[in-house]
Records
---
Amino acid sequence: MSALLEVTGLVKRFGGLLATDHLSLSLQHGEIHAVIGPNGAGKTTFINQLGGEILSDEGRIVFDGHDITREPPFRRAQVGLGRSYQITSVFNDFSVLQNTALAVQAHAGHSFRFWRPAASERALVDPAMAALAQVGLTERAHTPVSVLAHGERRQLEIAMVLATGAKLLLLDEPMAGMSPIESEAVVALLKKLKGQCTILLVEHDMDAVFALADRITVLVYGRPVATGTPEEIRNQPEVREAYLGEEGVV
Amino acid sequence: MAEPASRITTPRIFATVLLLALGAVPLIAQALGEPFWVTLFTRVLIFALAATGLNLVLGFGAMVSFGHAMYIGIGAYAVGILSFHGVDSGWWQLLAALGVGATVALAVGAICLRTSGMAFIMITLAFAQMLFFLAVSLRDYGGDDGMALKGRSLFGGLDLNNSTVLYYLAYAVLLAVLFAFGRLVNARFGMVLRGCRSNERRMASLGFPTLRYKLSAYVVSALVCVLAGMLMANLTRFVSPSYMAWTVSGELIVMTVLGGLGTLIGPVAGAAALLLVEEGLASLKLGVPWLDTLINQHWLALIGVFIVFVVLVLKQGLYGWLVAREARR
């Protein structure tokens, strides 16, 4: 299997702070790769570097044969990198369906179309409804986003990434703030997606991570201290010390 | 906005009544023997058109341009300068106005849109001031004092010297722009623009090259103001740098906010409300001499009170309040 994403020697400094410290990582087609680590380990910085919202000081990011190290976020999205945000980032003026259809629209040709209502374009609405069905939001399609419950907004966040048809999903704590039942639904959904697309998952919910991930990378102070299968990670003493032990207290 | 076209709602009724009433103004003015009304309401239509143009970037795109008066100026000066040189054909004037307007808007927009927020406001203002002083320096064309037009634009059989014809031309242009914008804001292009208003960062991460869409909206919005400027020059038979004074840009923003940002009819309602209240207060005759004098002299202060009232109490503006109330149902 060839790597879909190849990150080598990635560095990001914020003043004197080394937020990402020569991070190298490679993602295989179809795998779910989880990145875990204590708070402040630089997980979100790493996701932002991959997504392009933070430019890297050093290192290289090659995605699906494209060197995207210097590319702006929209180009990365266009070559198939989709991301969700830790803090729900949806369009509050729009309905659930409009949000999702906009995600489809981003990958359905140019948007210099001035006449036909987007809501009547089957090419936008049908894939959007399909993405909503996948996350279980079909009934809420016409609800304004502003009245959604927190868990539903998180689901919409995932539906939008799916609707872009991305090859790689960067999911930044998709289960943050969800009830156990809602988390279970997301775990089930991500299991279904396994094989369909490649997922880089940043998550605090250890049960979810160990249930889903093919491989796990542990990040401490911006540096990967261990990478391996869930079983290998579970048995590494330094990982337990750096992270799992601490998590147990919390 | 996304609701089915067939539903009858309060905002729709209001919009229809407002537009029909505007359409009937020359007839009413004639019946009442008040020809001045036609001129006054032509001004209303022209400002409604300019504010509608501004609303595309301000209301739907959240780009606070404080320099849109410069495009009114470009439209007016295109008519003025060509007419000075003996080119009376409205079509040539239109071509020149739109050509220059589009070029300036592309260049200015491409620079300004690299910034956002307060910087965008200031830089658009700076460009408008540059153009203002350029117009002041045009001594051949009246400089600071402006110049009178030799004649109005000639559009085939349209006699713009007839104030009713000019009125209905402005009315037709306004209706056409409103109809086109009504389509545009719900089409793909409008969805991108409104998405940028709500969360531009997310738009980029979905894969939209947002700059080119925002720039296009800026150019379209500028061109609508150019049309308003051409009509203005024809209404007053006069062009002067005062058309692109920064206060005019400010008035356009006030009209848009007053009527309802990001609503189709809001700027029309806002322009009508502001200009008519102005006119009404400045010439108010209650029959109490001291009160009349007070109001007639200090009407600007009262306008301030009116605007504060609308913004504080209705929040989304006159028409925007109706739309928001409907949405809550």
Note: The first helix of chain A runs from residue 43 to 51.
---
Amino acid sequence: MKKNKVILNFKELSIIIDRLCHQLVENHFDFSKTILIGLQPRGVLFAQKILSRLCEITNKNIQYGELDVTFFRDDFRRRPGVLTPHETNIDFSIENFNVVIIDDVLYTGRTIRSALDALGSFGRANSIELLTLIDRRFTREIPIEAKYIGKSVDVFETEYVIVNLDLDDKESNVLLLNN
Amino acid sequence: MKDFSVNHLLGIKNLSQNDIKLIFDVASKFKEVINRPIKKVPTLRDITVANLFFENSTRTKLSFELAEKRLSAEVINFSSSGSSVSKGETLVDTVNNILAMKVDIVVIRHPDAGAASFLSKNIQASVINAGDGSHEHPTQALLDSFSILEKMNDIKGKNILLLGDIKHSRVALSNIFCLQKLGANVRVCGPPTLIPKNIHDLNVEVSFNLKESLNWCDAVNVLRIQLERQNLKLFPSLREYTMMYGVNKELLQTINKEILILHPGPINRGVEITSEVADSHQSIILNQVENGVAIRMAVLYLLASKIKIS
């Protein structure tokens, strides 16, 4: 029987988003040399929330793009069916910019590895950092860690972390699904 | 998770509407990739593709090769001129020798209809038909429909005209299947000698009146006169063909709307289409060429995804 446990409710989520944004401001100042990149498909909604809160805090326009990593994944031909790609919206060069990759859940690290490869198609960034809402600890398959973490959780392999983000924040939460 | 229903791309006839939509969906993502500063992705780095061209080709061969290289596949090229084919080797023997070099996907163009299908039943590799005689040229039809879709947002209910040498054109047959599967109304127009007599079986309209057909359509795909496939003289002269069925600016000005102009290439400028029309803002001929690479990347990607690593 499936049992859901709320890891973060909407209030906790908004506090975490605020905190992450202030951490970014601390390191990136006026964001003139910074680009935020949301990862398709599920990191994008979270990245948009970070972007919109950051714009409120800084009162500046911050460069933002969305990246799909499907063609750079290492499990092509290893899964049933077709890996269907999503849209990439990056119509600028990242050459010499500081890039912050934003995703909802950091799990094995393989998606982020693919993202690092994919970003190379848009130029050589000055630096690349990772921001994640949820860090599933002790599950990494490759040595990748996030610089900005919303919440770290320790969960079993059989459990799923589901991030529900809605335009209406009151419906947003993070659930732990026990199979 | 979506799936691609075929292991080979032999013709549009074998594809479902969902397959075509999946190809378009993936192709639109590859179109973004080929407009990046670095246009290459590593997806097919462990796939080897053999391009076997038993018939002349410039555009299709280059387009396939570029698509394969953009996907990081290993590519080997073969053309029948100067090969052992001229010493009497059979098609299956030639291909099996190439496959012994561990090839995963074969792209084949052949002067005989059914060559790709025959090959797919006799070899252990995915086969892509890059044109078989006067039968099918599926990737051309896919890129034509994709180009129309890009400009018109939808194909369903649109009137599409195929003009010229329908009888000898593999592009025409594949286009008819593709456009119909996407819900378009298809009409063919050309001299009666260049329209197959049983074309009505395909549920297409036939007209011999170019001006009326241009008024009817939203897009016209102007096909090349295939002199190399004509044993008989099917019309009196190229000059007369141009007068009756050539698309020119004056003719387009007489119709009351702006229509899209497509041409699969190579263009016989001044015969089936004037330079003025081919280079006009209504023409999407160069879009077709760009989309050709994206469509072929999508087909290669989808077929390669069916070759699982155990």
Note: The interface with chain A takes residues 1-4, 22, 25-26, 29, 32-33, 36-43, 46, 301-302, 304-305, 307-309 of chain B (CB under 8 Å).
